[in-house]
Design goal:
Layout: H1 30-46, H2 50-56, H3 79-93, H4 103-123, H5 138-147, H6 154-164, H7 167-183, H8 190-204, H9 211-220, H10 228-260, H11 276-288, H12 294-318, H13 334-344, E1 356-361, E2 373-376, E3 385-390, H14 398-408, H15 413-422, H16 435-449, H17 457-484, H18 488-497, H19 503-515, H20 519-541, H21 547-557, H22 562-570
Parallel strand pairs: 1-3
Antiparallel strand pairs: 2-3
Helix pairs in contact: 3-4, 7-10, 8-10, 9-10, 12-17, 13-14, 14-16, 16-20, 17-19, 17-20, 18-19, 20-22, 21-22
Length: 572
Amino acid sequence: MRFKTKILSIIFLPILLLTGCSNFSFPTNANVAFENFALSLFKEDIASTTLGLHYTLEHPEAYGITDVPITLGTFETDIDESLATIENCQAVLKKFPYKKLSKENQLTYDVLSSYLKLSQKMTLYSLHEEPLSPVTGIHAQLPILLAEYKLSSEEDVHMYLELLKTVPDYFSSLIHFEQQKANAGLFMAEGNVDQVLAQCEAFISMGDENYLLSTFETRLNSIVTLNSSQKETYISQNQRILQDYIIPAYECLSQNLQGLKTCGHNTQGLCYLPGGTEYYTLLVARETGSSRSIYNMQSLIQTQITNDLLSMQKLLEETPSLTPITLSANSESPKQILDLLESEISPAFPTSASVSTEIKYVPDALEDYLSPAFYLIPAIDNTETNTIYINQAHNMDGIHLFTTLAHEGYPGHLYQTTYYAAQNPNPLRSLFNFKGYVEGWATYAEMCSYYLSSLDKSQASFLQKNSSLILGLYAYADIGIHYIGWDLDRTEEFFKTYGIVDKTVISEIYQYILGDPANYLSYYVGYLEILDLKQQTMAQEGENFSQKDFHQKVLDVGPAPFDIVSKYVLEK
């Protein structure tokens, strides 16, 4: 699965930092008051970490943000303080006269209110969270985020180098958090620890080939005001900091995880942990953005699996030669594919923002540990330059590369992000990571892209249904493992029912789902929620239904829980 890097995903505190809410004053105009309130929340949160600020705003001074501390944040978990902060913000929010707000402000109000309610519940399960997921953990994300840290001035260089020095303290708070998890009987399983240790070792063992060295030189060369002597000085400082701060931080993390390794007694799903079932229920709600019960989701997934199987069977009856192995598609370069997709989506999707995109490749040493591809979200005040990473270890070509770039690019993440940014939404909305919406949309875009490729209609439909089926099986297994309590044997039985019998493959799937619960659900349930909303819109509008109008309505609402998306898409 792919992941989209969102800065808030690495700031572990599960709530916005809203400590200034109680002192907020109210102007006479309700809309002005609410917009000032939302802006104050945005500024306070975004200034709390250097990476969050740097990746979200290219020009923070335009928002009145100056003299911020250099920090990566913390993994401290004071539940009482967090709950008080949320309740404080909820109290202020309720003072606004909802009906007097503009439609845009009502939408922001709805999103913030929903986010706070769920965060309030999730805070009680803070120690169940796992920032060291083998798939999207901070140990794997941080080097990429640092390598992509934009250097536009000498001041940026100073801040970046000072930020690198804070990695040991950041990891110390992470280690303390993992120790708290161990003490509470909530530490990860040994198999997951082994994966994290291997990823840390891969980073440590790069030596002089570490991409934090090479990428720093490249970024430094873009600053024309620096002379050769200054650049050499900074390059030397960066090398020393890597050796004296960052590598030791990773070594310390590895040593402590090794010491905690035997503390992870649960080798099965979350439901076997104290409070695990309750936590999983909330986690699924957060990751999918869906208000459905777990069993309702399970039924929805099963229905789609059945429909996909029936469709594939019918296609095979009509064209027996159809098999995934024999199908191939576009062989253009990634840039050519993105250009083609951008032009091909115009009949069914609203006009996209004019942006540039750079294709980069995952460093060799990290290929075994990072996703097949991912999109890096640009700063909200400069979405013109975008980056998509491709992991060449996954040997993507043909239709696989085509649909992957649709997921990450057009009409997926890049398109959705830049389109929404062009609508000039309230900046507070950029802080919320509604994964079900963004990954659901990208999965929907990926499924649509099969019909934009060079494949004929039958081939495209067969592959699309096959892709949906596989993802549906993984999502269903996620519920089975973490909510119902499947062990590996029961998981093997499930996949065997659908013709998947390779025990090595199933074991890998099982371990992946154990290490990143609800991840597959965010993609698949998000996708199914969009399909369901599309069906509702078609029923409501009848002959007047337009795919382009539907897509625009969903995109205009932006990332949000699906109850809210439905409310604004279906309103007459």
